[in-house]
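Report of the visiting student (M.T.), summer placement. My assignment was to run the structure pipeline on a short list of targets and document each run. The first record concerns Amidophosphoribosyltransferase.
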Amino acid sequence: MKGEADLHEAFDIDADTLREECGVFGILGHEDASALTALGLHALQHRGQEAAGIVTFDNEQFRAERHLGLVGDHFSDAETIGRLTGMAAIGHVRYSTTGETILRNVQPLFAELDGGGIAVCHNGNFTNALTLRRQLIRDGAICQSTSDSEVVLQLVARSRKGKIVDRFIEAITQMEGAYSLVALTSKKLIGARDPLGIRPLVLGDLNGAPILASETCALDIIGAKFIREVENGEVIVCTPTGIESYFPFGKQTARPCIFEYIYFSRPDSIVGGRSVYDVRREMGRQLARETQVEADVIVPVPDSGVPAAIGYSQESGVPFELGIIRNHYVGRTFIEPTQQIRALGVKMKHSANRSQIEGKRVVLVDDSLVRGTTSVKIVQMIRDAGAREVHFRLASPPIRYSDYYGIDTPVREKLLAAKYGLEEMRAYIGADSLAFLSVDGIYKAMGYDGRDNANPQFTDHCFTGDYPTPLTDLSGEQDFIRPPRLVEVG
Ligand code: SF4
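After the run finished, the structure tokens were exported:
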């Protein structure tokens, strides 16, 4: 039962991956706040390519620029940055999981409250946002977007607490799910991480200006110093006079998302004190220990498969070669190939490097397998380049469960490993053999003896089905018949 993926369809290795939903950045007390935020978002572009936005405060008013598209397309000209005046700014890059890709869902979202304005941006997904939104609308709230993140603003607005920080804390203590939040008021830069710390958030400093960002790569690009991770369940408040922390959820054991190491975070980022690159290479080493096969060459599926393939090669002693070449200049402007061109099976983004493949037993190493549609084409492309054998190795366990914490995963039925066993998956992608890193193996690569099933060290439910928080919106108690909505047609 070979996967019937249309081999003549234009070929894109990135088509069948999980997508991270969003990156956040904020800075307080720097004259180039908006330019630095644009650079920080550029470094976080891998966390969301659909839209980007920046809000600044210039001691008089908040200023906002939000656009559909990439950061570089909208925030690299002096004119735009010039309009975003002020010593404080927050920014967001987006890949939507809830809420359409429309301008009114582009973050940061803003609300005018009694006592002043507040802008908020969010990485993650609230698993009770629909339930809360419904209650808010019943109580007369008027929602400006269809994004789950707006619920936080609505709850801050409804809080009867005096101080904005107390109102913010009252709001987030009603939220479930995964979140890293960055907010800006006229006097404060506020950050918050959910009680388990599922999504990442770090604190940095640039010449005395505090910075909050999803990943350390956003600090590196502007030469800022890494101070520390924002802790799980921490609300951090930066003001011109210093930094305060609150822990409204009490102490809980952190369970960060393990997929940040497998795929989402940039290899040059440090997450939880670990180099993402080093962890991926170690996952490759562990994969070789667990799934070795006689072979002549180790070939990564670029780019995310590279560190694991290097580790696999180092552990197995089989040479590593770039057997798949990526064309970095495809971009979006390339004319859509005509049907007859497509029928040639053009390989727009990736092609086989025949000299490293022909007549050889090839081990292909990739970070993860989702629907399997792209893997079918990769195996076929390597066979077409003359490989004697093709063995497929994944540096993560089979993905059998959907996410709900801010990752765009297909519905369960579309996940290959949720449908098929190992042998059926091997036959589907057309490889001579197929193997995944085990769940315990991925924990060993992180430096543990294995998964602590009583107290799991990470959030890993796409592999284990062990969801770490309630999933109220999915509990089926609420029938979410969505009322007719406004669709912007002009
Ligand atoms: S399912 Fe869990 S482990 Fe997998 S990506 Fe989502 S939060 Fe991370």
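The chain has two domains: 17-255, 277-326+337-464. The pocket of iron/sulfur cluster is lined by residues 198, 257-259, 403, 405, 407, 459-462 (CB under 6 Å). I thank the supervising group for their guidance throughout the placement.
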